[in-house]
Design a protein that fits this description.
Helix content is about 75%, strand content about 0%. With about 190 residues, the chain is an all-alpha fold. The chain has two domains: about 5-75, no CATH class; about 80-185, no CATH class.
Length: about 190
């Protein structure tokens, strides 16, 4: 195998490894399974490549492949994590809530003067941050409302319920939720 063939085999192996890591058939999580599939794809493509070259490629590329596997393992249905997916699904499935946040995203976009920003990236960042802040505040207010419900109206301990609501939603990526509403406005 000449140098060009080795380079092509390495490139093909890395591409297969990345595809294996990102495979939807693996399912959510399963970090070690993703890394195993990536290494198997590399091994298959590295047939006929000297061990010294294999080791050099692995030393250079393995950290990036591991990071990709970690990111893919943490993702959920195209969203950063389960909590973000679940909360966004709840917002989108309630018609009134969906229309409220879609309308609010539209208002923010219409009220923002592009002349006030250096470029489109700064404008987009402003819109995302503004809407994300409002979404998070609304969520926190709803959690506080639950905390004020009399214990006699709940089963179980009110503090446990409030703590559960807080902890299960502290990992929500509010920027991602805001982006979802802003993208819908941009597409309309």
């Amino acid at each position: 195998m000449n140098r060009t063939q080795r380079a092509n085999a390495v490139a093909e192996g890395l591409e297969k490894a990345r595809a294996a890591i990102c495979s939807q058939s693996i399912g959510t999580g399963r970090f070690s399974e993703r890394v195993s599939y990536a290494l198997a794809a590399l091994e298959e493509s590295f047939q006929g490549i000297p061990n010294r070259t294999r080791v050099a490629v692995l030393l250079k590329e393995l950290p990036g492949l591991v990071e990709l596997a970690k990111t893919e393992a943490e993702a959920y249905n195209g969203h950063p994590n389960y909590e973000t997916w679940h909360h966004l699904l709840a917002l989108e499935n309630d018609e009134g809530t969906y229309h409220h946040w879609s309308h609010r995203a539209q208002e923010l976009a219409e009220d923002a003067d592009p002349e006030d920003f250096d470029d489109e990236v700064e404008l987009a960042r402003f819109l995302r941050t503004s809407l994300a802040t409002e979404l998070k505040a609304e969520h926190e207010n709803a959690c506080c409302d639950v905390a004020n419900i009399p214990v006699t109206m709940m089963e179980g301990n009110r503090l446990d319920i409030v703590n559960t609501l807080h902890h299960c939603h502290e990992d929500i990526d509010w920027d991602h939720v805001a982006d979802s509403f802003l993208e819908a406005v941009a597409d309309a």
